[in-house]
């Protein structure tokens, strides 16, 4: 294998004056003159053995683009050509090319094309991490040959970031044969060993590389009409655009006006019984591009905050809102991403959202009320490379709010949107700042990893606010955070150790995402990783784990012991199973004022199974079962994918949650906290269907039917002034007179037609529909899900057309 690595280290691209014709057929003079590279080695299934069938790679370049031609001989198995939309991975024959054009050994551009002509692109960073959300304008074509199939890939140099021509790039080429589940590599990386980009072969040197400075424009026009449940029709039309300036071959500036389109599929709903915020992934292209440059050990930038739906504002007595707030309008955003100097990576972002207002009514008439003010967001990320093995960096975010001082006056004080009462001339909202430094190192073998960071947060302005754990954060407060992580990730003995501490008032949630602060936490994992196929399994990893969480008062808020195993069987089924024990602990966020509620210990079991991905029907199921003192909790999530036709995929995702008997906070009554045993149920069915007319024209159907129910029984109280509430000391009471049960049924659906009618230029036609019904129930009543009401209620419907044109 070492001889093969040495051979591919000398891959030299050939400069051509006559460019190939992009048709997938490698018959032009440029290809016949270029030297082929054929030393592919299996990674799977027979690691270290020669590829079962020949693969040949040729690399040429002209003044504008890098061209890669790949011939795939395939005589021993059928070619699997499954059509799907761009950037969706399916089990299909494909070739992949990774280019570390900056020669850092840490970052690379990823391109792949399937035997059906479907394109996928992504960015690799930190050696082993992958940002699959990245998209660029490049192209590839495939063709059937007498001995198999071939691919022709054209990557414009403007897509890549690079230094001088004399510096060789890193390169990896992979071929996947779906029928055999065979993965072949040009730069062999032994199976089970750590590292990715740092192990690539070399491409170069180049004779000359072009200066890719220039401007790209992508103007768009959008028209929509929305129908609200009260049968009001609201048309909307807008013009916007994106401008990209390639300041240097390594540095790019982006400016977008009104960039908030692309969330064409509703967020998948879940029943969240925890005290933590539900995390939703970003779907807007402007924020997805370059996301890897803003990645930090803590999520200081969570772009779903930008343009989010604000909470409904507090209103004076007697005022009723006509409707809930809409998402804050994103008026504009800009980014600067790339590399300055030899190896200094920069990511800078700024965005502005408009004021969010609602209309209310009372006996005196209609009122215009503020839900959120104009807001500016900024983020900066800098990483200085330390050779191929690591970096040191800094990150920061800032949020500034610009109030208009038009909130309601109640008595002699102002009623802020969050419900606070402040003196006239006092701010209702605050500004926020987060900053930190971090570093990362990986050993030359790729096996050992060490990383650390420290950060701090501060806020200014606005009234004090109480966190769910009782901590009060006021204007001028600041707090630190620190984390250390070390791991060994290759074959044999593996371990993973994390120690982290967040200060009581550490808060990044104005621009970032943090479930909670006020904790000391450590994880210790040790296990054994075996990537050598045996009698039953192709690879397996078994680990023993211990984790520990305390708040700064010393109360155990989580912790436990667990043992788990992940196995890939010889038939390509996979399994993960885990058994764990979590001792009794306290939840300081349950009540919302810092009162700590005791939770009993839990014995739990998790199991995930997935079938052979080569089949036309694949199935996976993940479940967890917890045994508590007063009853079990069960969650299950499935995925059934049917490859009905080469161009048609049907994906069905069922989910279920059942929780029985855990003591939870319900309400306050007569200066007492009221608790009850929670009985919750949720069931959902999500359908995703993709029909691919061509690799550039797809029709997607999405639908989710979801229902949830939460009810309480066996009520008990504890005085509101107590710091710790022990379940054994709760005083039973009769059912309170207030409604405590809730249920909800909803149906979300969308149809999306996407056509890339020319490279980088797209047409979207979208129809979406959302309807739901919420109900409340008296204490001690069941809370049945009213599926009929949910499906029969009036819906919100949107029909939208968006067309864009890309001008390079």
Brief summary:
The chain is an all-beta fold and 808 residues long.
Count of helical stretches:
4
How would you state the average pLDDT, rounded?
A: 92
Structural class: mainly beta
Radius of gyration, whole Å:
28 Å
What percent of residues adopt helix (DSSP H or I)?
A: under 10%
Largest sheet properties: 24 strands, antiparallel, barrel
The separation of the N and C termini measures: 43 Å
Query: Any low-confidence stretches, pLDDT <50, length ≥5?
Result: 1-8
Query: What overall form do the CA principal axes indicate?
Result: globular
Approximate strand percentage: over 45%
Number of strands: 49
Report on this structure.
With 808 residues, the chain is mainly beta. Helix content is 3%, strand content 55%. The protein has four helices and 49 strands. The protein has a 24-stranded antiparallel barrel. Strands 2, 5, 6, 7, 8, 11, 12 and 13 form an eight-stranded antiparallel sheet that branches. The protein has a five-stranded mixed sheet with strand order 1-3-4-10-9, with no helix packed on it. A hairpin with a 4-residue loop joins strand 11 and strand 12. The longest helix has 7 residues, at 2-8. It is globular and about 85 Å long. The relative contact order is 0.09.
Describe the secondary-structure layout.
Blueprint: H1 2-8, E1 14-15, H2 29-33, E2 41-44, E3 55-61, E4 65-73, E5 94-100, E6 108-114, E7 119-125, E8 129-131, E9 139-145, E10 148-156, E11 169-177, E12 182-185, E13 201-203, E14 214-227, E15 233-248, E16 251-257, H3 285-288, E17 320-321, E18 330-340, E19 344-353, E20 356-362, E21 365-372, E22 374-385, E23 390-402, E24 409-410, E25 413-415, E26 421-422, E27 431-442, E28 448-460, E29 465-466, E30 472-473, E31 478-488, E32 492-502, E33 519-530, E34 537-550, E35 556-569, E36 574-582, E37 585-587, E38 596-599, E39 602-610, E40 617-627, E41 632-645, E42 648-669, E43 672-694, E44 697-719, E45 724-725, E46 731-732, E47 739-758, E48 761-778, H4 787-792, E49 796-804
Parallel strand pairs: 1-3, 38-45
Antiparallel strand pairs: 2-12, 3-4, 4-10, 5-6, 5-11, 6-7, 7-8, 9-10, 11-12, 11-13, 14-15, 14-49, 15-16, 16-18, 17-20, 18-19, 19-22, 20-21, 22-23, 23-27, 24-25, 25-26, 27-28, 28-31, 29-30, 31-32, 32-33, 33-34, 34-35, 35-36, 36-39, 37-38, 39-40, 40-41, 41-42, 42-43, 43-44, 44-46, 44-47, 47-48, ...
């Amino acid at each position: 294998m070492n001889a093969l690595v040495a051979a591919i280290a000398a891959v030299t691209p050939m400069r051509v004056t006559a460019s190939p014709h992009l048709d997938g057929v490698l018959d032009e003079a440029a290809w016949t003159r270029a030297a082929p590279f054929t030393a592919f080695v299996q990674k799977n299934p027979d690691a270290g053995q020669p590829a079962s069938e020949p693969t040949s790679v040729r690399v040429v370049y002209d003044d504008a683009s890098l061209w890669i031609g790949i011939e795939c001989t395939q005589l021993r198995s059928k070619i699997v050509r499954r059509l799907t939309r761009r950037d969706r991975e399916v089990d299909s024959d494909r070739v992949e090319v990774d280019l570390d054009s900056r020669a850092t050994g840490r970052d690379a551009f990823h391109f792949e094309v399937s035997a059906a002509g479907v394109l996928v692109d992504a960015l690799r960073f930190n050696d082993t991490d992958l940002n699959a959300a990245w998209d660029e304008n490049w192209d590839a074509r495939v063709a059937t040959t007498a001995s198999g199939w071939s691919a022709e890939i054209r990557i414009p140099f403007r897509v890549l970031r690079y230094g001088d021509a004399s510096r060789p790039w890193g390169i990896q080429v992979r071929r996947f044969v779906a029928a055999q589940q065979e993965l072949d590599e040009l730069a062999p990386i032994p199976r089970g060993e750590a590292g990715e980009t740092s192990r690539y072969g070399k491409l170069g040197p180049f004779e000359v590389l072009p200066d890719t400075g220039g401007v790209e424009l992508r103007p768009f026009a959008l028209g929509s009409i929305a129908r609200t449940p009260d049968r009001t029709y609201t048309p909307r039309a807008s013009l916007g655009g994106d401008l990209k300036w390639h300041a240097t071959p390594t540095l790019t500036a982006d400016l977008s006006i009104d960039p908030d389109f692309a969330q064409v599929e509703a967020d998948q709903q879940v029943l969240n019984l925890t005290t933590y915020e539900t995390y939703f992934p970003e779907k807007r292209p402007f924020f997805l591009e370059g996301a890897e440059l803003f990645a930090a050990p803590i999520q200081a930038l969570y772009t779903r905050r930008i343009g989010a739906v604000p909470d409904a504002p507090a209103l004076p007595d007697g005022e009723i809102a006509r409707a809930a707030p809409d998402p804050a309008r994103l008026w504009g955003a800009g980014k600067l991403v790339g590399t300055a100097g030899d190896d200094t990576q920069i990511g800078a972002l700024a965005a502005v959202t408009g004021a969010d207002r609602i209309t209310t009514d009372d006996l005196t008439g209609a009122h215009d009320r503020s839900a959120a003010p104009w807001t500016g967001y900024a983020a900066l990320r800098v990483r200085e490379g330390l050779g191929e093995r690591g970096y040191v960096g800094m990150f920061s975010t800032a949020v500034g709010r610009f109030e208009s001082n038009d909130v309601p006056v109640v008595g002699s004080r102002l009623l802020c949107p969050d419900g606070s009462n402040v003196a006239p001339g006092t701010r209702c909202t605050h500004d926020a700042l987060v900053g930190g430094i971090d570093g990362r190192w990986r050993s030359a073998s790729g096996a050992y990893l060490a990383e650390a960071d420290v950060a701090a947060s501060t806020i200014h302005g606005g009234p004090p606010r109480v966190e769910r754990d009782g901590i009060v954060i006021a204007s001028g407060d600041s707090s630190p955070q620190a984390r250390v992580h070390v791991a060994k990730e290759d074959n044999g003995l593996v371990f993973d150790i994390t120690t982290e501490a967040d200060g009581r008032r550490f808060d990044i949630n104005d621009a970032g995402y943090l479930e909670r602060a006020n904790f000391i936490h450590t994880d210790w994992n040790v296990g054994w990783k075996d990537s050598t196929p045996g009698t039953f399994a192709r690879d397996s990893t078994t680990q023993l784990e211990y984790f520990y969480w305390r708040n700064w008062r010393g109360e155990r808020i989580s912790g436990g012991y667990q043992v788990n195993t992940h196995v890939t069987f010889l038939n390509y089924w996979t399994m993960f199973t885990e058994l764990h024990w979590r001792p009794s602990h306290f939840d300081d966020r349950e009540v919302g004022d810092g009162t700590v509620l005791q939770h009993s210990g839990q014995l739990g079991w998790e199991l995930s199974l997935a079938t052979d991905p080569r089949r036309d029907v694949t199935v996976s199921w993940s479940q967890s079962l917890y045994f508590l003192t007063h009853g079990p909790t069960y969650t299950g999530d499935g995925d059934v994918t049917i490859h009905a036709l080469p161009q048609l995929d049907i994906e069905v995702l069922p989910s279920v949650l059942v929780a029985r008997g855990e003591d939870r906070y319900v309400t306050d009554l007569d200066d007492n906290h009221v608790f009850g045993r929670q009985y919750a149920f949720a069931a959902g069915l999500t359908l995703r269907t993709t029909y691919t007319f061509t690799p550039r024209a797809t029709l997607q159907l999405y639908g989710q039917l979801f229902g949830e129910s939460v009810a309480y029984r066996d009520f008990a109280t504890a005085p509101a002034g107590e710091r710790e509430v022990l379940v054994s000391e709760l005083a039973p009471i009769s059912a309170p007179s207030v409604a405590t049960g809730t249920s909800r049924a909803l149906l979300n659906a969308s149809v999306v037609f996407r056509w890339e009618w020319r490279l980088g230029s797209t047409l979207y036609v979208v129809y979406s529909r959302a309807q739901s019904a919420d109900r409340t129930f008296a204490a001690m009543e069941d809370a049945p899900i009213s599926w009929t009401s949910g499906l029969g209620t009036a819906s919100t419907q949107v029909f939208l057309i968006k067309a864009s044109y890309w001008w390079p």
